Amino acid sequence: MNILIIEDDPSVRTLVKAVLKKQEYEVDIAETATGGQDKALQNSYSMILLDLGLPDGNGFDLCKTIRDEEVTTPVLILSAEQETNMKVKCLRVGADDYLTKPFNTEELLARIEAIDRRSNDTNNTNQVLSCGNLKVKMLEREFWVNGTKVDLTNNEYNLLVYLLKNKNDIVTQEQIAGNVWDIHFDTQTNYINVYISYLRKKIRDHSDEEYIDTVRKKGFILRCPKS
C-alpha cells in the first residue's frame, strides 16, 4: 500500500511514517496544502492521511479540491478538532474517516485497514448490482440511473452498495455505521442521514421513482419495484 501523509507537525509526521514503514507500507510526505495537493493530483496513492491544520491552508479545503478534481483515493482526516460538526463537515466533502488527535498507533492502523478493506470489498468484483432503474457496476465503480451515469463520492458509493446488497430489507443506522464506516454509531451525529439525503437527491435528479425510504425508529430501506 502506498500512503501519502500531508502533515506539518514534524513529531506527528515522523511517528506516523515510522509506524507505516514498520508495516511495510510505502510512504510519501507533504508538509503543506500546496505540496499535498500537487502530490495527490499527480500521483496514485492507496490512501491519503490528511491533517486539517496546515501552514498554507486547511485539510478541509484540500479534501474538497481533490474530490472536485475527481480523485477518489480514500482520505483519512487527522485532527485535534473534536467538534462533531467538523467531523460531519469533513465527511460531507468526501473524507472517508476522521481520527482525532492524539491517537494511538493501534487505532490508526485499524482505521487504515478498515478503509482499505471497504475499498477492496467494493472494487474487486465484476458484479453488477441493480434495483429498478438503478445500477452499480462494481468493477468500474459506476452508478447509473435510468441510463445516466451519476457521480458519487466514496462514502456515497459505499453506502449505496450496502443498501443495494440489502435491498428490500430494513437496515438500522447502527448496521450502516458498522458496515459502511466500520465505526460504532454516534447518536450525536447525523452524518448517516446526510448521506442518505445526498443519495436521494442524486437519484431524484434522474428518476421520478422514490427508492430510499425512512422507516421510523428502525432505519432505512431501499425498495425495489417488483418486475
Automatic annotation (TrEMBL):
Q: Which organism is it from?
A: Fodinibius salsisoli
Which intervals hold domain OmpR/PhoB-type? 126-224
Gene3D superfamilies membership = 3.40.50.2300, 6.10.250.690, Winged helix-like DNA-binding domain superfamily/Winged helix DNA-binding domain
- Which protein, by its recorded name, is this? Response regulator transcription factor
Coiled-coil residue windows: none
The record ties this protein, via PANTHER family, to:
REGULATOR OF RPOS (PTHR48111)
Name the source's superkingdom. Answer: Bacteria
- Looking at the record, the residues that make up the Response regulatory domain are 2-116
